[in-house]
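W.,

You were right to be curious about this one. When I first looked at the sequence I had no strong expectations either way, so I just let the prediction run and decided to look at it fresh. Below is the sequence, 315 residues in total, followed by the output.
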Amino acid sequence: MNRLFIASELIHLNKNNWSGLRLGLIEEIEAHLHPQVQLKVIKSLLKQKDAQLILTTHSPNLASKVPLKNQIICRNNSAYSLSEEYTNLDSENYVFLEKFLDVTKSNLFFAKGLILVEGWSEELIIPVIADKLGYNLIDKEVSIINVGNLGFSNYYKIFSRKDKKDMGINISIITDCDVPKYKEEFENSEKIYRKVDETKYKAQCKDIVKQKTNSYGDVVKAFIAEEWTLEWCLMKSKVIGDTFKKVVEEIHNKSNWDNFEEELARKLLMKTLNKSEIAYKLAQKILEDNTLQFSELNNDETMSHIVGAIEYACK
């Protein structure tokens, strides 16, 4: 019935002998339409050439399919067009988002706060850590957006405007400094893994953190690990470290963990660490274990960036 009504109104709007305003207003088009049907309707409406249509929606399903340049975000009594003349997105950003802005990532249009992360590990672990810290991300209406790589600018620039207007949303970026603590070397034709000098390692990490912090725009706040990767930070965490080690040993039970640090480094360098499964099981363990002192996480150097990112997005 909903579709029939829309279709009949479109017939009126497209009549040849119509001299009035060819404007159609549709409020919350997703009402009473299944997600698949929503997409069929939007596909048809996008083909309309002779009438202007203004639609309102709370559906990330629809927001993921309508071209970004045609969207307007309404928040705090203001309307923010996402067309090229208003945002700091460049033409390549628009092309990227047309392909990769899916239903899950389209949550960013409706959130009160955002946490942009590199991959699945962060997406699985951070909500649990946030909950333990007293920040339920659902209650706070904060979304975690897994960008799947380091292309954060493709997403946060949606909120970066040429007129410098603040859209009133706190955006955190969580990323690693990606400076390896170990390096691969060959000795007598045999591959070995040697630890990098601690002073040199710390200096490199510090430099990379500074470079990355300065590389992001003014609409976001970057929280960068001062260690190699998320897994390296978890291993060195005073609060979560022991639980993390048990989970890793359980999943990679055929490996030799006598020297845990070296074996973890080897797997990270060889890209053989099962990061997603580790993150999933670690999240379960954290939820079930009430003995972990999460009140101390603020003082945990390797995890402070995650704490800061959660607190900022939830303000």
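Here's what jumped out at me. The longest strand covers residues 170-175. And, maybe more interesting for your project: The mean pLDDT is 92.

Coffee later to discuss?

I.
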